[in-house]
Automatic annotation (TrEMBL), chain A:
Protein known as: ATP-NAD kinase
Coiled-coil spans in chain: none
Taxonomic superkingdom: Bacteria
Lineage per the UniProt record: Bacteria, Bacillati, Actinomycetota, Actinomycetes, Kitasatosporales
GO MF assignments: NAD+ kinase activity
Pfam families membership: NAD_kinase, NAD_kinase_C
GO BP, one annotated term: NADP+ biosynthetic process
TrEMBL record, chain B:
Keywords linked to the UniProt accession: Oxidoreductase, Pyridoxal phosphate
Gene: gcvP_1
A single GO molecular function term of this UniProt record: pyridoxal phosphate binding
Protein name: glycine dehydrogenase (aminomethyl-transferring)
Entry-linked SUPFAM superfamilies: PLP-dependent transferases
InterPro entries attached to this UniProt entry: Aminotrans_V_dom (IPR000192), GDC-P_C (IPR049316), GDC_P (IPR020581), PyrdxlP-dep_Trfase (IPR015424), PyrdxlP-dep_Trfase_major (IPR015421), PyrdxlP-dep_Trfase_small (IPR015422)
Domain named Glycine dehydrogenase C-terminal: residues: 375-476
Cellular component aspect of the GO annotation: cytosol; glycine cleavage complex
Function recorded in the entry: The glycine cleavage system catalyzes the degradation of glycine. The P protein binds the alpha-amino group of glycine through its pyridoxal phosphate cofactor; CO(2) is released and the remaining methylamine moiety is then transferred to the lipoamide cofactor of the H protein.
Catalysed conversion reaction: N(6)-[(R)-lipoyl]-L-lysyl-[glycine-cleavage complex H protein] + glycine + H(+) = N(6)-[(R)-S(8)-aminomethyldihydrolipoyl]-L-lysyl-[glycine-cleavage complex H protein] + CO2
Class in the EC hierarchy, top level: oxidoreductase
């Protein structure tokens, strides 16, 4: 078994320094100036220890120096090294290059946060990946709940995979007190029970069949003549797939009578497509904070929402559980629209399964 | 001779350590089908003294049954070994399987059911020859009707979940009889109700609406208001829920559902904390069910057949499964002439052995005794809660007083050590006790659910709490050691993915052969 390892040596720097993230070299320099130490290396080493304890025969393949070799050795491995010479300090480009260089592994482990996950996503890994949580922001579903869990999940990987979302917050906005998660895409991860991160709570992950069940339920309830706006997200994309079309992961699509009539549409195009029709909007929960409107789906604007007759939210029960009792949030930019949306919304959690769940204007809920 | 005895008595006997040095049997025992040897037999049946009769082709098997061929000794040894590889209720302090009400099943009740007058009954015997067992069914039904306050009870269901299914089948028949079967296609339940409610409703064709808990830990009554309507067939709810929290507004929940024409069905899986204190009828419920293997002490029987009971208000009596056991003042008889009945939910009367055990248990206790059961179960739970909350890293979300069980959380311990609740449970098995987390998904982070019932002594509860305190301390000093557990158990780590993956799971040998060996 060959396990790839990439460490983002500066991940987590900003957290200790109270900087709410480590994106950008300026922030990293500031963090170091405040006396922060990176912890990604030691967390990666803990993952390697757990991996080797469970699979002593596993070969760790990694990058020379601080981007993996040091952590692999600290974890007790004799690593195989890729022919790379990352910069000092390393950059996002080095992470992407490492992902591409480590293509011939069974599972690729990376230590970092949501920003690192985005770099891994951008590089387009051809193998299952799993994050070792070491960053300040770890909202993406592609992380294990802890370093040892990541090592074990890699050791026990037997070919079964699922998709996990990569989300990231706008750090500048976050430093200003606003939580603004955005969905960037999905990564293929090992389908290990329990060990994947349920965001900030240690809940279990849902089986891949749950998402298919949610999609079937949405499709079964579709009525002729109604224009269905499908927001971004892997759960809403599953609805498109259930109808036989690919749709977009990050954009807004429109479906009528089972056929896509708009893919990745703008607000303007959306208004044209729904004009004069009965309209239903189907959105999913973006990030761990419970946002359903106004984050990554601004195309579904107050003007569009004014024409929506029925709003349905899609979420697995695990995702609702991970909210820890907090409500869903609407932040459309228009307080009147947010207020109108307040109350109980039908959250589809599976085929013929739903949860009436509270949705409130984001301004009424302190988050962060 | 006497000198030997004396010197033996003088041998120093080392004091036992505070925690048991338990080690479970590990037999590496194959599956019974793998032990089969062609031609091996348990009984050599002698030749009949009469000429063989050719069976009609219609009743003859084409191929012999695929059953293991073994001798008696090997069958006995196989099952005794398996029994040594479990942590059954007769050997461990079984307070760790919360919601399952693992109480002592009095052994004297086993003697009643092994008595030939019960053991040799045939389910198809004529009524006149089984008046005694019919009387037990009749009297047991009347007692459960009194305990629930409902009108009649069926003891036909095979298990608790079969009783819940019986209830949803009666709900469906009731609405259909009023011409509202099509319209009422939704069943409302709660996140902390017994999950069989959602499962049975779904199996019966209903859409399931689940209410999440509010900030107090009660099911969200505002969500119920948003959910009820002309499509509501029923509310199926457990109280106290699996958190151990009793919903004080339960009568309002029932009223809201009645207000839209729905029925209210009480899952009494957690009845052990309310026996003799409150009843389903007092909150206005139309139906309820009991698990005889939980509240009424019969063995759980490895997931079936245990025994269930379905209780109904008067308006639902016509829909009870049939035939019903009736009494005309002189004679007990079966009434199969019930045109609106949902029909049989199992062959014959019910799980007679467990009905007899539960009957004996109730008769031994009486009404006062039943109330004492609930009071003792609550007292035990209060004591255990007090002990558990002294362990650093353990908490009880929502912080309120519970009835007969508590869903606790190791969230603080996990954040400090990275050790999960599952890890703690596996390590607890090294000390010879069972431990359970929670149904999924985990609403309470890093959950564990303890239900001490009335059976356990103060010393038992102290021992259980001491084991958890010890493991929590181990998690702080050596988390990897806890994660590496179990060390003294029958098996080491198992891969749980086969439980979730339809391609892998194999509940029978045939499925195992089909999916993994062919």
């Amino acid at each position: 078994m060959r396990i790839g390892l990439i460490v983002n040596p500066v991940a987590g720097l900003g957290g200790a320094a109270g900087l709410k993230g480590s994106d950008g070299t300026e922030v990293q320099r500031e963090a170091l100036a405040r006396g922060a130490t990176a912890r990604a290396g030691e967390r990666a080493a803990a993952a390697v220890r757990a991996l080797l304890a469970a699979r002593p025969d596993a070969t760790v393949v990694t990058v020379p120096g601080a981007m993996g070799e040091a952590a692999a050795r600290a974890g007790g491995a004799e690593p195989e090294l890729a022919a790379l010479a990352p910069g000092e300090p390393s950059s996002a480009g080095d992470t992407r290059a490492a992902v591409r260089a480590l293509a011939a592994v069974d599972v690729l482990l990376f230590a970092g946060g949501d920003g690192t996950a985005r770099d891994v996503l951008d590089a387009g890994p051809g193998v299952p990946v799993l994050g070792i949580p070491a960053g300040v922001k770890v909202y993406s579903g592609c992380f294990a709940v802890g370093p040892a869990a990541a090592g074990l999940a890699a050791a026990e990987f037997a070919g079964s995979t699922t998709e996990a979302e990569v989300v990231d917050l706008d750090e500048q906005a976050y430093r200003e007190g606003r939580v603004s998660p955005r969905l960037y895409g999905t990564l293929t991860v090992p389908a290990a029970r329990v060990r994947l991160s349920g965001r900030k709570t240690g809940s279990t992950t849902a089986a891949p069949t749950t998402v298919e069940g949610i999609a079937r339920e949405v499709v079964a309830r579709m009525r002729p003549g109604v224009r269905y706006i499908l927001g971004p997200g892997s759960t809403t994309r599953a609805v498109g797939r259930a109808l036989g079309s690919e749709g977009t992961l990050l954009g807004v699509d429109v479906v009528a009578d089972g056929v896509p009539i708009g893919i990745d549409v703008s607000e303007r195009a959306l208004l044209d497509l729904v004009d004069g029709h009965e309209v239903a909007a189907v959105v999913s929960v973006i990030g761990g904070q419970g946002f359903v409107l106004g984050r990554g789906n601004q195309q579904i604007s107050p003007r569009v929402l004014a024409r929506v007759h029925e709003l349905t939210v899609l979420a697995t029960r695990e995702k609702l559980a991970a909210l820890g009792g907090r409500p869903l949030l609407a932040d459309t930019g228009d307080p009147a629209t947010d207020a109108r949306l307040g109350g109980y919304v039908r959250v589809v959690t599976g085929y013929r399964e739903s949860v009436p769940y509270r949705i409130v204007p984001a301004s009424e809920e302190s988050v962060g | 001779m006497s000198a030997t005895v004396e010197s033996f008595a003088k041998l120093p006997i080392e004091a036992k350590p505070p925690l048991r040095r338990f080690h479970q049997a590990r037999w590496d025992e194959p599956i019974i089908f793998e032990l089969s040897s062609p031609g091996r037999r348990g009984i050599g049946v002698p030749e009949a003294g009469v000429p063989a009769v050719e069976l009609p082709a219609a009743v003859r098997r084409q191929a012999p049954p695929a059953l293991p061929e073994m001798s008696q000794l090997h069958v006995l040894r196989h099952y005794v070994r398996l029994s040594q590889e479990t942590l059954g209720v007769d050997v461990n302090i079984a307070v760790g399987q919360g919601t399952c009400t693992m109480k002592y099943s009095p052994k004297v009740n086993d003697r009643f059911v092994s008595d030939t007058r019960i053991a040799e009954l045939h389910p198809a015997q004529p009524e006149d020859s089984v008046q005694g067992v019919l009387e037990i069914y009749w009297r047991m039904e009347r007692m459960l009707a009194e305990i629930s306050g409902l009108h009649r009870v069926s003891l036909q269901p095979n298990s608790g979940s079969a009783a819940i299914y019986t209830n949803i089948a009666m709900i469906r028949a009731y609405h259909a009889s009023r011409g509202e079967g099509e319209q009422r296609d939704q069943v409302i339940t709660t996140m902390f109700s017994h999950p069989s409610n959602a499962a049975c409703a779904k199996l019966a064709g209903y859409e399931v609406i689940t209410l999440m808990p509010d900030a107090e830990g009660h099911p969200d009554i505002e969500a119920l208001r948003a959910a009820v309507g002309p499509r509501t067939a029923a509310l199926m709810i457990t109280n106290p829920e699996d958190t151990g929290i009793y919903n004080p507004r339960i009568a309002e929940f029932v009223e809201l559902v009645h207000g839209v024409g729905g029925l209210a069905c009480y899952d009494q899986a957690n009845a052990n904390g309310i026996l003799g204190i409150t009843r389903a009828a007092e909150a206005g419920f139309d139906l309820c069910h009991f698990n005889l293997h939980k509240t009424f002490s019969t063995p759980h029987m490895c997931g079936g057949p245990a025994a269930g009971a379905s209780g109904v208000a008067e308006k639902l009596v016509p829909f009870l499964p049939g035939p019903t056991v009736e009494f005309d003042g002189e004679r007990y008889f079966l009434d199969a002439d019930r045109p609106q009945s949902i029909g049989k939910v199992r062959p014959y009367l019910g799980v007679t052995q467990n009905v007899v055990r539960a009957y004996a248990w109730i008769m031994a206790l009486g009404a006062e005794g039943l109330r004492q059961v609930a009071e003792t179960a609550v007292l035990n739970n209060n004591y255990l809660q007090h002990k558990i909350l002294q362990i650093r890293g353990a908490s009880a979300p929502w912080g309120r007083r519970r009835l007969e069980q508590v869903r606790y959380s190791w969230e603080e311990l996990y954040e400090e050590t990275g050790v999960h609740s599952e890890d703690i449970g596996v390590r607890a098995a090294d000390f010879g006790v069972h431990y359970w987390t929670s149904h999924h998904p985990y609403l309470v982070p890093e959950p564990f659910t303890l239900e001490p019932t009335e059976s356990y002594s103060k010393e038992d509860l102290d021992e259980y709490a001491a084991i958890l305190a010890h493991v929590a301390e181990e998690a702080r000093t050596d988390p990897e050691f806890v994660k590496g557990a179990p060390y003294n158990s029958t098996v080491h780590k198992i891969d749980p993915t086969c439980l979730d993956d339809p391609e892998q799971w194999a509940p029978t040998w045939r499925a195992y052969v089909r999916k993994h060996l062919s």
